[in-house]
Design goal:
With about 600 residues, this protein is α+β, with helices and mostly antiparallel strands. The longest helix has 21 residues, at about 555-575. Strands 11-10-16-7-8-15-12-13 form an 8-stranded antiparallel sheet. The protein has a 6-stranded mixed sheet with strand order 2-3-1-4-5-6, sandwiched between helices. Strands 21, 22, 23, 24, 25 and 26 form a 6-stranded antiparallel sheet that branches. The protein folds into 5 domains: about 5-175, P-loop containing nucleotide triphosphate hydrolases (Rossmann fold), CATH 3.40.50.300; about 190-275, Beta Barrel (Elongation Factor Tu (Ef-tu), domain 3), CATH 2.40.30; about 290-360, Elongation Factor G (Translational Gtpase), domain 3 (Alpha-Beta Plaits, 2-Layer Sandwich), CATH 3.30.70; about 370-475, Alpha-Beta Plaits (2-Layer Sandwich), CATH 3.30.70; about 480-590, Alpha-Beta Plaits. The two termini are about 55 Å apart.
């Protein structure tokens, strides 16, 4: 066990985490030099430059005649996947804190750093991209050393792109990351830090062993789900699966045990032997809680079965998605889905299209509200359609988030103005160094999910970084805004918002729809309403057919007669005619400017 090193890499998006992981694989001769990105193997990961799924790789590293077993646990960097990151950190004894020399420490890096410190991990500071022309090496080293309270000399400087400094880092991992502790003789305790579904073999569970020994044929017990399964295969994870005879305390590996559903092997759960259970589960297990909800509907109504099957398959690989059936007058049958955040929603949408060839329309995202009713009961809703009659409502509670924004000090005024517009309450402001400031706010989640991140990047010229976590539920004057097209309510376009924002948001949606819905032969009214009160309106004017074109000369009364006939026809058409709403109109509602 003294030669095992379990470590992870924590970094902000695009700071070179996956590139560094690939260089480490090359240095330990797991892959050949010049190989394409290995760990981010999903097409979507490479395209967006982010890590979506956790990965684990075992490597052998030789130093001074000794062979060390390295277990690298690659983690997602985005705030939406914070729980997965925390479980990966719990599986390690050390963490490489990677910071881009040209950008400095970002908000999500700080968030993951605090988590690593809570797990008592040995932090190894690393400056990446030292070969970049814009790299401020000395400044970043000083900032990182000051943040961690260490000497400037203990910060590793490297370029993951060229491989410069990587071999020194590997020697540093051996010297500074402690070996795992554990007892082979104690009852088995193993932490599930990831699981994924294989079509032929069922769920493959990635575990970190804390105590005891697991062997092929053992019957294991999952604490959270209560299920028991026999181990069919056990072993180490390299670039593929390498079967072995057993996993001992301190090791990282995989288990295949005929598990049919990913929800039976949840991330953060504890595995023990069914006939010799440990005293209790490892601390830190949580059920993944969806934060953002949206309706998913197939582009073609006959593709409902395809969408249902695609979601079921996706759920096998991503246990954090929740979905239930939903029907809409405008869009037909679909599903109400819960996501960890807006990035998670975007990724699920992309994966449905790419992996299952299933095109979808998403309705306006919403969050979970707690509603106290006059009869003494309380309900939770995430769909505007479920909103009870306002007469029955005592008060509504909305989720509030703790938000940290790190930004260069010249943009502080812009950020404060944006946060104020989004109903933010400033808690404090800290200067990280002479160039950058950390702003802490309490912001409603409802204000964050609509283009807040885009606006933040816009007002800071791309330099601001954002991290947020759930704080509590608070009362707020929330109302449901209905969108009506020609007097007909379109349930798929309804949304919830703060009372003060109802008019500007409603006006933004109606004006967006005016540009998307084609003109008809009659005038179309686009209205936003709260109950029976109209709060905003836009109008699509009718197309005019020149009915007098065939009149040449003669009495003016002939033209008047034709125009009156046309007027009567348009009036009748408005009463009985239906408005054709194109699919682009539903998508455009999401893009409406909600400032």
């Amino acid at each position: 066990m003294k030669n095992i090193r379990n470590f992870c890499i924590i970094a902000h998006i695009d700071h070179g985490k996956s590139t560094l992981a690939d260089r480490i694989l090359e240095e330990t001769h797991v892959v050949e030099r010049g190989a394409a990105q290995v760990l981010d193997d999903m097409e979507l990961e490479r395209e967006k430059g982010i890590t979506i799924k956790s990965h684990a790789v075992r490597m052998d590293y030789e130093l001074d005649g000794q062979t060390y077993e390295f277990n690298l646990i690659d983690t997602p960097g985005h705030v939406d996947f914070g729980y997965e990151v925390s479980r990966s950190l719990a599986s390690c004894e050390g963490a490489l804190l990677v910071v881009d020399a040209s950008q400095g420490i970002e908000a999500q890096t700080m968030s993951n750093l605090y988590q690593a410190m809570e797990h008592n991990l040995e932090i190894i500071p690393v400056i990446n991209k030292i070969d970049m022309p814009a790299a401020d090496i000395e400044g970043t080293v000083h900032e990182l050393a000051e943040t961690l309270g260490v000497d400037d000399e203990s910060v590793f400087k490297l370029s993951a792109k060229t491989g410069q400094g990587v071999s020194e880092l590997l020697a540093g991992i051996v010297a500074r990351v402690p070996a795992p502790s554990g007892d082979d003789e104690a009852p088995v305790r193993a932490l599930v830090f990831d699981s994924f579904y294989d079509v032929y073999r069922g769920v493959i569970v990635l575990v970190r062993m804390y105590d005891g020994v697991l062997r092929r044929g053992d019957t294991i017990h999952f604490w959270a789900s209560g299920s028991a399964n026999d181990i069919e295969e056990i072993g180490a994870v390299g670039l593929g699966l390498h079967p072995g005879k057993e996993l001992r305390a301190g090791e990282v590996g995989y288990i295949i045990a005929s598990i049919k559903d990913v929800s039976d092997a949840r991330v953060g759960d504890t595995i023990t032997l069914d006939d010799n259970r440990c005293e209790g589960p490892l601390a830190g297990y949580k059920e993944p809680k969806p934060m953002v909800y949206s309706g998913l509907f197939p582009l073609a109504k006959e593709d409902y079965v395809v969408l249902r099957d695609s979601l079921a398959k996706l759920k096998l690989n991503d246990a954090s998605i929740t979905y239930e059936k939903e029907s809409s007058m405008a869009l037909g049958h679909g599903f109400r889905c819960g996501f960890l955040g807006m990035l998670h929603l975007e990724i699920v949408k992309e994966r449905l299209l790419r992996e299952y060839n299933c095109g979808i329309i998403t309705t306006t995202p919403s969050v979970r509200f707690q509603i106290f009713l006059t009869d003494g009961t309380n309900i939770e809703i995430n769909n505007p359609v479920e909103m009870p009659d306002p007469v029955r409502i005592l008060r509504i509670l909305e989720p509030i988030m703790n938000v940290e924004i790190i930004v260069p000090n010249q943009f502080v005024g812009n950020i404060m103005q944006l946060a104020q517009e989004r109903r933010g309450t400033q808690k404090d402001m800290q200067y990280i160094d002479e160039k950058r400031v950390a702003l802490h706010y309490e912001l409603p989640l409802l204000e964050i999910i609509f283009d807040f991140f885009d606006k933040l990047k816009s007002v800071s010229r791309g330099y601001a970084s954002l991290d947020y976590s759930f704080r509590d539920m608070r009362p707020a004057p929330i109302v449901k805004v209905d969108i009506m097209i020609n007097g007909e309510r379109v349930d798929a376009m309804s949304f919830m918002c703060h009372e003060e924002k109802a008019h500007p948001w409603g006006k933004a949606v109606t004006e967006t729809l005016r540009d998307e819905i084609p003109r008809h032969l009659f005038k179309i009214a686009l209205q936003a309403s709260i109950g029976s009160k109209i709060i905003a309106r836009s109008t699509i004017n009718a197309m005019r057919k020149n009915v007098t074109a065939k009149c040449y000369g003669g009495d003016i009364t002939r033209k008047k007669k034709l125009l009156e006939k046309q007027k009567a026809g348009k009036k009748r058409m408005k009463e009985i005619g239906s408005v054709a709403v194109p699919q682009e109109a539903f998508l455009s509602v999401l893009r409406a400017d909600r400032t």
